[in-house]
Fold:
Amino acid sequence: MNKPISMERKFIISGGGTGGHIFPALSIANGIRKRDPDAKILFVGALGRMEMERVPAAGYPIVGLPVEGLQRKISFRNLLVMYKLMISLTRARRILNSFKPNVVIGVGGYASGPLLRVANRKKIPTVIQEQNSYAGITNRLLANKAARICVAYQGMDQYFPAAKIVVTGNPVREEIINSHVKRPDACKFFNLSEDKPVLLVIGGSQGARTINNSILDGIRLLEEANIQVLWQTGKYYYKNMMESLQSMGLSNIRCLDFINRMDMAYHLADVIISRAGAGTISELCLAGKPVILVPSPNVAEDHQTKNAMALVQQNAALMVSDKEAPGKLVSTILQLIQNDQLKVSLGEKCKKMGIPDSAERIVDEIFNLAAYRDRSE
Structure:
């Protein structure tokens, strides 16, 4: 006889470390709560990482594990890392025994490893959400035992079992999806002219040294071309960039340490310069604007270059390598911003790669697993 389906659902979402993991995790949590307002949601993160602040600020409880990553070179510190891993596995077991989730979701990051490993041993259904076009090592190790693997790119069967893969895209911030911004309002917000083209420069919340220096070196060429530059430098670089700009007497530059209305910034941009983090690329695809990607070389397994190439191979973006940027980025900007046909083509093909209902697709998979587990118990 089948067991009646329980009215109360419990979910654990694990992972973090960077905004690229945390934003999708919160979007999934919001999607679960929208689907079932009575669902219980617990986050499990890594102690000392940014999720321990960002998740409570978004209204969700979180428990921290003392897990951290292995050093890539031979180091005695790896002995401490292994000791912390053992503690984290024990704590993960306690969390699962106490909370009793229907499904556990891993979004990548240190904490997802021990929690999903223990969940798999306990036969609790697990969902992996892989943001990048090149799968991280933690997700690859967990894939064989996972019930579903939600990915953002085609061709991920080279890393994961094909039967478990569902192409869902990456969840992005809701204000990007549901933006109803009008260009005059966006121009007024940033104090920009409606009659001049706008170059949006973003290097992530922390900024990007190579992008900033490349733009600074060519800023007079952009000014002479009558191009307005809306420039997020990152907090670390803002002071130095402003000091350099103040003596130049430029009129078309809006330099900010952080842009808190990205929906407006995307809307008014004629061309966008960006790093190639998975979450950023997902937002750029939904924005549907011509993009020049400058992948960061300082990431594990060079996954930003692989993310960028997924768009470049579809003729949906241009790419300038970090090494080439000082001599090539500004000239590429000038060529693109003057080529209306290429701008339209890049924007349209980029838009086709966007998946606006990504969070809903992932929540569908999660709730299907929860319902199946109820029926099978």
Summary: The longest strand covers residues 40-46.
